[in-house]
């Protein structure tokens, strides 16, 4: 995954990530889309919950 954090002037934080899937020969990463993106997101959420972090709140933008 590639993460992003935006900090706005009023102190509001916005986090996002780009799901990356590494299924090509030689390890070239590619952006996951559709069901694969949802699988990557579910994996990241499971790891987050195991680490006692809050659940993800997702809004899909352009990866369907």
The largest sheet has its strands arranged as: 1-2
Secondary structure: number of strands = 4
Radius of gyration: 13 Å
Total DSSP helices = 1
Mean pLDDT rating: 81
What summary fits the major beta sheet? Answer: 2 strands, antiparallel
Percent helix range = 25-40%
Strand composition percent = 25-35%
Residue ranges: pLDDT <50 for 5 or more in a row? none
**Separation, N- and C-terminal Cα atoms:** 16 Å
3D shape: globular
The structural class is alpha+beta
Element string (H = helix, E = strand): EEEEH
Give an account of the 3D structure:
With 64 residues, the chain is an alpha+beta fold. Helix content is 27%, strand content 25%. It has one helix at residues 34-50, and strands at 2-7, 13-18, 20-21, 30-31. The strands form two sheets. It has a two-stranded antiparallel sheet with strand order 1-2. It has a two-stranded antiparallel sheet with strand order 3-4. Strand 3 and strand 4 (30-31) form a beta hairpin. The longest helix has 17 residues, at 34-50. The relative contact order is 0.17. The model has no long low-confidence stretch (mean pLDDT 81).
């Amino acid at each position: 995954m590639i993460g992003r954090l935006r900090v706005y002037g009023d102190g509001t934080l916005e986090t996002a990530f780009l799901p990356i899937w590494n299924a090509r020969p030689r390890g070239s990463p590619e952006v996951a889309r559709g069901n694969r993106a949802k699988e990557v997101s579910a994996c990241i959420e499971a790891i987050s919950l195991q680490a006692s972090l809050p659940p993800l709140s997702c809004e899909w933008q352009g990866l369907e």
